[in-house]
Amino acid sequence: MMNADFWRNAALLALLAGFTLWLVLRDKSHRARIAQRTRQSVARVGVDNSAMADAAKRMPQRFAKRIAALGERLPVVQAEDRAKVAMRLASAGFRDRRAIAVMSGLKIVVGACLALGAIALGGHLPQVGQNFTIRALLMAGAFVIGMMLPEYALAFFIRHRRKAIAAALPDALDLLVVCTNAGNSLVVAIKRVARELRVICPPLADEFTVTADELSIGSDTAQALSAMSARVGLSTMRALVTTLVQSQKYGTPVTQSLRTLSRTERAMQMVALEEKAAKLAPKMTLPMMIFIMPTVSLIAAGPAVIRLIAVFRGH
């Protein structure tokens, strides 16, 4: 029996050792095949990366094309409002020829998504969820809200862009002063300022680039500058455009006017910062009363309250 058990155990150990050796050799061959495939694919890494990058770039474009096609088939924006919507889109930095169609398509898609969400969640509302009329009203209200959300998003983008342009406009005026002092023409000065502001403030650089391109192709100077002022919608930009138009019209030196305008804009920014600083104290009153005063009162009156409780319990 012992010999039989010994040979049985030896056979099992040999079988286990053989199986382990097979796994090791198989793993080595598997790793070798993986290494070979890796070496073969090294030459195609650049091509694959560029293909992936192109695909990543094309995905938003494909989505925009589909949204634009939907917006063209179902034009939500009326014909008399297209110019106004186009101006607002340009103020937000969207100048593509399909921007209005994309805006219309986004309204439809967002409205439909919210309407479907209202249909799906309306049945879970207590008491009123089973009423078909109420669910229909919820669906209609959700669709209307979804149609309005892209407008609010566009307004947010416009405000954010104007703030960025207003913050960088004094620096742009200083650069224009330097360029005009150097003897550059208006188009060359605007192009140079746009190139310098590309990293600091891309929205303002984009506006200057578009205006310089319009001036380079022979467009009317006053018209191109007025279009930039209308897109930006800032009082400082309107003053800059007025100064440049008058200098071009009457031949007056523009350097001193730009320098004065830059100083005025910086003074206005300082006044705005001082006004914000003056408003800070009243705004801090309510948070202090809610969050700080209860804690201070607890720390100050807590020990006395504990002692009073101990005294009353002793009596």
Automatic annotation (TrEMBL):
Classification via InterPro entries: T2SS_GspF_dom
Localisation: Cell membrane
Main location as per UniProt: membrane
Membrane as UniProt keyword: yes
TM helices/strands, residue ranges: 6-25, 105-125, 137-158, 289-312
Record keywords: Cell membrane, Membrane, Transmembrane, Transmembrane helix
Pfam families membership: T2SSF (PF00482)
Protein topology in the membrane: Multi-pass membrane protein
Record-annotated Type II secretion system protein GspF domain positions: 173-299
The organism's place on the tree of life at top rank: Bacteria
PANTHER family per the UniProt record, alphabetical: INTEGRAL MEMBRANE PROTEIN-RELATED, PILUS ASSEMBLE PROTEIN
Protein name: Type II secretion system F family protein
Origin species: Paraburkholderia podalyriae
